[in-house]
């Protein structure tokens, strides 16, 4: 014979309250919301992995190859991956590749929720004027300007970019370790 558990008269209310409190705590810990060091609030969303793979394919075509030297003692030519020029070109390529992927994450994986009072918004000329003074080209497209605004105004600290990248990465299926590795390479 099956035994059934008896419920205390207060138990349904207690369980309901616990469930509501747990849900509220989860809502307050929404990992898709990121607030930057300057107070800009973004909602993060996934970016198609296929897009990141397409960026990788394009950059793989640009990946530098080590110079080939003829080695007389061996009677053949061999690549020299230790060549200083190659090492510099490879480092520059890695940074450019990581930047392209980060740009895709920031552009497609963020949605502006709010901007604190006093901080220039995307359409504000003041931040664009500063960029022009510093000889930084202002993109003509609204998406290009949004990306530049995110990087230069809304999320100016490395920690901001890292927090956004981690949140977007989680939604996209990129591991925290992959994001951390990319950030480490970028910071070098």
Explain briefly what this protein structure is.
The protein has 188 residues and is mainly α. Helix content is 57%, strand content 11%.
Q: Helices, strands, pairings?
A:
Layout: H1 11-28, E1 33-35, E2 41-44, H2 49-62, E3 68-71, E4 76-79, H3 84-109, E5 110-114, H4 125-133, H5 142-154, H6 158-172, H7 176-187
Antiparallel strand pairs: 1-2, 2-5, 3-4
Helix pairs in contact: 2-3, 3-6, 3-7, 6-7
Describe this entry's structure for a reader.
Strands 1-2-5 form a three-stranded antiparallel β-sheet. The protein has a two-stranded antiparallel sheet with strand order 3-4. Strand 3 (68-71) and strand 4 form a beta hairpin. The chain is flat and about 90 Å long. The chain contains seven helices and five strands. It has one domain. Helix 2 packs antiparallel against helix 3, helix 3 packs across helix 6 and helix 6 (158-172) packs antiparallel against helix 7 (176-187). The N and C termini lie far apart (69 Å). Helix content is 57%, strand content 11%. The protein has 188 residues and is mostly helical.
């Amino acid at each position: 014979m099956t035994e059934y558990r008896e419920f205390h008269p207060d138990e349904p209310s207690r369980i309901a309250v616990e469930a509501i409190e747990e849900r509220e705590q989860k809502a307050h810990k929404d990992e898709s919301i990121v607030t930057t060091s300057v107070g800009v609030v973004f909602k993060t969303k996934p970016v198609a992995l296929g897009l990141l793979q397409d960026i990788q394919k394009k950059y793989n075509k640009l990946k530098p190859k080590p110079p080939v030297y003829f080695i007389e003692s061996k009677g053949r030519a061999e690549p020299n991956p230790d060549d200083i020029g190659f090492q510099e070109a490879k480092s520059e390529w890695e940074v450019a590749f990581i930047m392209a992927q980060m740009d895709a994450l920031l552009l497609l994986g963020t949605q502006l929720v709010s901007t604190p009072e006093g901080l220039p918004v995307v359409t504000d000329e003041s931040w664009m004027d500063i960029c022009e003074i510093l000889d930084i080209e202002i993109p003509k497209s609204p998406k290009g300007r949004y990306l530049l605004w995110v990087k230069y105004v809304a999320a100016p600290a490395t920690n901001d970019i890292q927090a956004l990248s981690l949140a977007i990465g989680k939604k996209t299926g990129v591991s925290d370790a992959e994001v951390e590795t990319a950030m480490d390479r970028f910071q070098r």
